[in-house]
Amino acid sequence: MAEEYKTPEERCAELERLLHEAREEVRHYQRIAKDTGRRRLREIDQLSRFITEHKRAEEALRRSEQKFKDLTEATTDWVWEVDAQGVYTYASPKIKDLLGYEVSEVVGKTPFDLMPEEAEKICKFFNAKVINKEPFYGLENVNRHKDGHLVVLETNGIPIFDEKGQLKGYRGIDRDITKRKRVEEEKKRLEAQFHRAQKMEAIGTLAAGTAHDFNNLLMGIQGNVSLMLLDIDSSRPHYKKLKSIQRQVQSGAKLTGQLLGYARKGRYEVKPIDLNKLINEVSETFGRTRKEINIHRELAGNLLAIEADQGQIEQVLLNLFVNAADAMPGGGDLILKTRNTTYEEMRGNPYDPKPGHYVLLTVTDTGIGMDKKTMERIFDPFFTSKELGRGTGLGLASVYGIIKGHDGYIGVDSNKGYGTAFSIYMPASEKAVQESVKTTDGFIKGTETVLLVDDEEVIRKVGQAMLQATGYRALTAKDGIEAIEVYRNHRDDIDLVLLDMVMPNMGGGETYDTLKEINSDIRVLLSSGYSIEGQATEILKRGCNGFIQKPFTIKQLSKKIREILGKG
C-alpha cells in the first residue's frame, strides 16, 4: 500500500531511473548493432572483393584459353601434350592438316602409333629424355599420314611437373619439314654432282694433256715406222717387227683415244647416224667372239637419228659389251633396247636434262652386279674391279666422257648378284642419216710445197721426211711466229700449211688467223695430239680446210692433203 502512496517526487525519480536504464539498454544494443553491422559490412566487402577477383581470374583464364586456342589454330604447327607414359592427353586441331587425323583419333594414343617406321628409334630417344627429365629440340622423325604417305616432322618438347616436382608429361609442338628436307636433299645432291663434275673436269684436263703429249710421242714412232716400211718389202727379216711396232702404236693411239674420250675431246666427225644399225653391226661382231653370251635385241622400229661421231659411239658400245661379258664369266644374257623418249620422262634421274627429244639405249646383263660403293666409282678413270692386268680402268671412264661430250646422259643401276643396266640418253636429231662411203686404201703422191709447222723437233723431222717420201717439197717452222715469216718469204710457192694446233709463243688459232690475213685463199690442214673437239672446231669454222689426228700414217696424211689440194 505504501507503493500506492509514493509521493510525486518519488514517482518522478522512479521514472527517471527506469528511463535511464532503458536508455542504457538502448545504447547497449546500439553498440552491439553497430559492431555487428561493421563486421557484416567488412564480411560483405570481403565477399565482394573475392567475387570480383574470382570474376577477374575467370576472365583472365578465359582470355588465356582463348589466346591459346587462337595461337594453336593460327600456327601451322601441331601443339600436343603427353603424360609420363607418352600417351597423348591433348592435340591441337592442326593434327588434321599435318597427318590427316581428327583430335579424337589421336588423344589416348602414343606418338609411336603415328611413326611405325621409326618407332623403335624414337622410343629409345624419348625414354632417355624422360629418365633425365630433359627438354628436347629439333628431333626429326618420319610419321605416316592417315592416307599412307610419309611426313617428316620436327619435334620440340619440354617436361611438365606437378606441385611436388614429379614429372607429369611433356608439352611441345611438331612442325612439317618435309619440303625443307627435300630441298636439303636436293641441295646435297646438286653439291655432290657439282663436286663430282669438278673432279671429273680436273682429271679430264689432265687426261687430255697426257693424251696430247703421248700422241706426239707416238707420232715420232709412227712416222719413222711408216718411212721404214716404204723402203722394205715383206720378205725382209725386220718387216714383221716393224708391222708389230705399228700395231703397238695403233694400240697406244686407241688408249689415248679413250683418254680423250673421257676428257670429252674425242669427237672427230659428227654426223647423223642410225643407232639401231650401229648396235646391230657392233653386237654381231662382238657376238662372234663371245659365243657364250646370248644377245637379245629389242630395237625400236621408228628410232630417231642421233648426231654423233660414229667411231666414238662404236667405242662406247664395245666398251659396254666387253664390260658386260666380263661380268658374266660363265655366260649369260646381254639385252639391248632402244626407244624414243623426251626430257620430261628423264626427270627424277641424277641429272637435269635439256629440253627436247632423246634416244634411249639400255644395255643390261645378267652378270654378278655391283654394290653401291663400286657404282659410285664406276666412271672414275683408272678405277677397275678386275684383277691386275685385265683392265686399264679407262673403258667406262671414256664411255662417260664420250656421252657427255655428245651432250648426252648416262646412268647405271645394279645390285650385287642381279646384273647391271646402263641407260644412255642421246639427243635426237631431225637430220637424215647419211650413208658412209668407203675410201680406197692406196695413197697418192703429190708435187706441191707444204709448210710443216710444229714445236716438236722430232715431229718436224719425221713429218718432213714423210712429205718428201710422198713427193712433196717440205718447208718447216718451229712455231707460229717463224711460220708467218716463212710464209711471207715463200707465199707464192707454198700450196698448203700443215699446222700444229698447240704451240708456245703463238698457238695454232692465232697463227691461222694471221696467215689468213696475209692470204685469204690459204689452204691449211690442222694437226694435233688433241682431237677435233674444242679449239680445232672453232678454227675449222673460221675457214680452215681440214684436220688430222696424231699419230697418223703416210697413207692417212697423203689422203688428207689430196682431199684439200685435189687429186691429179
List the helices and strands and how they pair.
Blueprint: H1 8-74, E1 78-83, E2 88-91, H2 95-99, H3 103-106, H4 119-132, E3 136-144, E4 150-161, E5 167-176, H5 178-230, H6 239-262, E6 270-273, H7 275-289, E7 293-299, E8 305-309, H8 310-326, E9 332-342, E10 357-365, H9 372-377, H10 395-405, E11 409-414, E12 420-429, E13 449-453, H11 457-469, E14 473-477, H12 480-489, E15 496-500, H13 508-518, E16 524-528, H14 535-541, E17 546-549, H15 554-565
Parallel strand pairs: 7-9, 13-14, 13-15, 15-16, 16-17
Antiparallel strand pairs: 1-2, 1-5, 3-4, 4-5, 6-8, 8-12, 9-10, 10-12, 11-12
What does this structure look like?
By secondary structure, the chain is an alpha/beta fold. The protein has 4 domains: 3-74; 78-176, Beta-Lactamase (2-Layer Sandwich), CATH 3.30.450; 270-429, Heat Shock Protein 90; 449-565, Response regulator (Rossmann fold). Helices cover 47% and strands 21% of the residues. It has 15 helices and 17 strands. It has helices at 8-74, 95-99, 103-106, 119-132, 178-230, 239-262, 275-289, 310-326, 372-377, 395-405, 457-469, 480-489, 508-518, 535-541, 554-565, and strands at residues 78-83, 88-91, 136-144, 150-161, 167-176, 270-273, 293-299, 305-309, 332-342, 357-365, 409-414, 420-429, 449-453, 473-477, 496-500, 524-528, 546-549. Strands 6, 7, 8, 9, 10, 11 and 12 form a 7-stranded mixed β-sheet that branches. The protein has a 5-stranded antiparallel β-sheet with strand order 2-1-5-4-3, sandwiched between helices. Strand 4 (150-161) and strand 5 form a beta hairpin. The relative contact order is 0.07.
